[in-house]
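Slide 14.
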Amino acid sequence: MAIVTKISAKGQLVIPIEIRKKLNIDENTRLVIREEKGEIIIRVVNWEYIQSFKGIFKSPNGETALDWKVENRKEELAAEDRKLKRWKK
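Slide 15: predicted structure.
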């Protein structure tokens, strides 16, 4: 679907109602706007978009932030268990 629209004097862009309805865009919807090879790309920020970033931030050893957090939490729980065992003695 291609619809011609224009930019206002304030630099605002009107997204036609047909597209807003199709993509469930309302006044609180977040959009990502970027320039790529001389074109403007607009993406709706939804769960699918957020999930597309999963796993892209990795440490030099290949560990993701989630992997690190899970392992760190396991270590914290083990330390708490050791403290509890000392208190029970």
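Speaker note: The chain has two domains: 1-53, 58-89.
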